[in-house]
Amino acid sequence: MNRYEIPLSTVWTRILPFVFLPVYGSGYIAGGLGLHTMRPFAMTFWRFALAGIVVLVIVLVRRARWPRGWRQWWPILVVGLLIQVVQFGGNYTAMGLGMPAGLTSLIAGSSSLMIAIGAVPILHERLTGWRLAGVIIGFVGVAVALADHLGIPSGPVGVFAAFSAALGYAGGSLLQRRRLRDVDSWVSVGIQFLVAAPITFVLAQFTGGVGIPLTAESLAPLAWLVLANSVLGMWLLGQMLRHHPAATLSAWSNLIPPFTVVLAVPFLGQPLSLTLVVGVVVTLAGTALVVLPAPRRRSRDAAPPAHGSREELVAASAASRPEA
Fold first, then answer.
1. Helix (H, G, I), strand (E, B) or coil at 181
2. 3-state secondary structure at position 11
3. Distance from C-alpha of 153 to C-alpha of 268, rounded to nearest angstrom
4. How far, in whole angstroms, is CA 58 from its chain's centroid?
5. What is the rounded CA–CA span in Å between residue 138 and residue 107?
6. Residue limits of the EamA domain (predicted)?
7. Which of 128, 219, 225, 270 is the 20 to 30 Å CA partner of 56?
């Protein structure tokens, strides 16, 4: 090899984050476009059903090992309910009620703050002063971003749906970290999709059914959510976990809310507001304090956390989260 040539693997490692962010973070934009012609639970059902079939085929081709025994099956089912049904159902309901995609993405991102709090009793982690400050700053930023939205008639209901989605993701992530560390991620997500599909089918019956218009305005966003955001996004996430440290994944994942805010202007016609921009900046600052490694002193007596570092938790839990 010429000494001036850069190995292909090195090139891929360098450009990978720039591919990961638009694909993995595009779900709010595609979801917002789909909601112009589809009801929230109808779109959610078709996303889960179709993505579940695709992922199941991938699992069969890879000959991945399936869960063994009820001890591995029940956490997958509960995680599927929390991360897939509650998270995506809540996000799409909030957006369907008029919540801007950027604000929905910001509230979803606050799940990192919820995970930091929940990790104390569940994973026996210590919430340091550094991270506690980050949690407080992060929620202040969310409150600032919400200032304008609460004034519209459907605002409180949309806010409740969005925060329920964030709580669902946080709870599912903590359970996944505690119980599913040895389960193949493709198998886990495929089962979650196929479990979530019939549940959202039932929920859709109360909001008009699962029928969708067979038009480009409906099928194009749905195809993107299934193939790009869910399947390709999950593969790119695995590549990020393989080629980059967890802190790098955390940092790039935190760029999803501002990425969504900017793209929502041309694609969804949602204007920027000062409160949203300020809220995003403040929340990002707080979240960075929570998910990025804090300055620490060396100690020979320091014991490792019982369930791995918070950076590992962010990386592991992200494996089940194709963005909105």
1. coil
2. helix
3. 21
4. 21
5. 10
6. 23-145, 158-291
7. 219
Computed on alpha carbons and rounded to an integer, the radius of gyration of the chain in Å comes to: 19
Residue 190 corresponds to which tokens in the numbers above? 């495929």
**Gap between the Cα atoms of 229 and 107, Å rounded:** 19
3 state DSSP class of 25: coil
Tokens of 62: 């890879």
The Cα 241–Cα 311 span in angstroms is 11
Q: Which of 23, 322, 289, 279 is nearest to 148 (CA)?
A: 279
Cβ atoms of 109 and 283 closer than 8 Å: yes
pTM of the model: 0.85
- Alpha-carbon distance 142 to 81, whole Å? 25
- Report the distance separating Cα 154 and Cα 192, nearest Å: 30
Give helix 70-79 / helix 185-204 axis angle, nearest 10°. 50
